[in-house]
Structures are given as structure tokens and as C-alpha cells.
Design goal:
0% strand; 104 residues
Length: 104
């Protein structure tokens, strides 16, 4: 899904505002980021606030799209780090319950 996609065919005003905020905030961060070796002009608190703002914007964009968090990429030489295990939700009674009835 691209930055302009939102639920339905037309992005909502809220979604378009979030996309624009994210893009402007990213541009500001790029503009004020100093070359390696120089001190960042932003305070540590401001940097943390910007990170929190990006996280909130991204979370709300996902909510509006109805998406789950994005999956991490997998590489051909490495398999997935987790396996999906399916459970049978058949009977709520343990299998040993039948044996106890036969022994009485």
C-alpha cells in the first residue's frame, strides 16, 4: 500500500494530514541532521519527542488502513524465525477423561 492509500478508494482527510505530517517531520529531521562527527543541534528530549511522534503517526495510519504491524523481511538463506502452529479446538475435555470412565 502506498502513502496515498487509505480505506476505500479515497484517502480520508485525517489520513492525508497524517501522511503530510510524517513527510514534513522527516524533512525537518533530514535538514537538521548534522554530518557524522558533528553535534546534533537538537536536545535529547526533542529527539525522543520526534521518535514518539513518528510512532504515533505510524500507529494511527495503520489503524486507519486496518493493517497489522508490518512483517520483518525474510532472506533466502534464512528461514522465518517463527513457525505457525495450529491447535485443534475440538472438545474441551482432556483425552484421558474417556479412560477414567471405562475403569469405573
Amino acid at each position: 500500500m502506498s502513502d496515498n492509500d487509505a480505506p476505500g478508494s479515497q484517502p480520508t482527510l485525517e489520513y492525508r494530514i497524517l501522511v503530510q505530517l510524517r513527510q514534513v517531520l522527516a524533512a525537518v529531521v533530514r535538514d537538521v541532521t548534522p554530518p557524522p562527527g558533528l553535534r546534533n543541534p537538537l536536545s535529547e528530549q526533542t529527539i525522543e519527542d520526534i521518535r514518539a511522534a513518528f510512532a504515533l503517526i505510524a500507529a494511527r495510519e495503520r489503524e486507519l488502513r486496518g493493517d497489522a504491524p508490518p512483517d520483518l523481511p525474510t532472506y533466502r538463506d534464512r528461514g522465518p524465525s517463527a513457525r505457525i502452529v495450529e491447535f485443534d479446538r475440538g472438545s474441551a475435555e482432556p483425552a484421558d477423561a474417556d479412560r477414567d470412565d471405562d475403569q469405573d
